[in-house]
Write a structure and sequence with these properties.
Elements (H helix, E strand, L loop, with lengths): L6 H6 L11 H17 L7 H6 L3 H8 L9 E3 L2 H17 L4 H4 L4 E5 L7 E2 L7 E4 L7 H23 L22 H20 L4 H25 L5 H16 L1
Parallel strand pairs: 2-4
Antiparallel strand pairs: 1-2, 3-4
Helix pairs in contact: 2-7, 5-7, 7-8, 8-9, 8-10, 9-10
């Protein structure tokens, strides 16, 4: 018997990128209300202008800093690179038209400084901000993948503003298939979510077949590694985290 839908599934039609009934506008409205209440301390009822304002990247960042401050190792992207990012967003929307509303999320794209081996970065502390390293611009296909990777993370961060995916206080950590250690269970979900989305992009993106085949094989291997960690991660997952884990497993089996 199918398990009952989680709060996120009931209220928003599913999870971003995974479920076509997902309603991004409804989630954004809920996030805007949460942010406006946090900023005012719950002392006022936000109007339409304020709800729009708190969904802008800079205002979102200021509100998040009420909780924590984490400086970003970033600077502005060049006009040429910003144009390339616009092209990557268009590529994603053309490959999977159902994702067009998702890639229109207001995001501030920045240049990752001193990133070392990092090709891109985003985190919950930097809502609606994406940092891209030089290697992200190696080719249009690479850039489309990295942009989708970080936009996917940002949508899950929005989900987590409404409902956490793991129980607070959980001190269980895992090592990602890439070798990155000390990752929390919700980060395993985030990694698997990215791989499922990026795999769908590569299945539909206009690239040479040999390149597609190789990249899909690499992604399949990484996803297998994430799924192998899922049972261990479940001990810390909330109902919504469990529901997302189940959806990701369904996607993997359906591939």
């Amino acid at each position: 018997m199918a398990s009952a839908a989680s709060f996120i599934q009931r209220e928003f039609g599913g999870f971003p990128f995974l479920d076509e009934p997902f309603t991004p506008g409804r989630l954004l409205t809920a996030v805007a209300c949460v942010r406006a209440s946090r900023r005012s301390g719950g002392e006022s009822t936000p109007g339409p202008d304020e709800l729009r304002e708190v969904l802008t990247p800079l205002t979102a960042l200021d509100i998040r800093r009420l909780d924590m401050h984490l400086d970003m190792p970033a600077g502005p992207l060049s006009p040429e690179r910003l144009t390339a990012v616009d092209g990557a967003l268009a590529t994603i929307a053309a490959a999977v038209p159902a994702w067009a509303p998702l890639v229109r999320l207001p995001i501030r794209f920045l240049q990752l400084r001193d990133g070392g081996r990092a090709i891109g970065a985003s985190c919950y502390a930097w809502p609606q901000h994406v940092l891209l390293g030089d290697d992200a611009f190696a080719s249009p296909a690479e850039l489309a993948e990295q942009v989708l990777h970080e936009v996917s993370h940002n949508w899950l961060y929005l989900v987590e503003e409404i409902k956490t995916l793991q129980h607070r206080g959980c001190d269980h950590t895992l090592t990602l298939p890439s070798g990155t250690s000390e990752r929390e269970p919700d980060e395993i979900l985030g990694a698997a979510h990215v791989v499922v989305n990026v795999r769908r992009l590569w299945q539909r993106m206009d690239v040479p077949e040999e390149q597609r085949t190789q990249r899909l094989a690499d992604l399949a291997s990484y996803l297998d590694g994430c799924l192998a960690l899922m049972d261990e991660a479940r001990v810390c997952l909330t109902d919504d985290g469990q529901a997302l884990a189940d959806r990701l497993l369904q996607e993997a089996v359906a591939a």
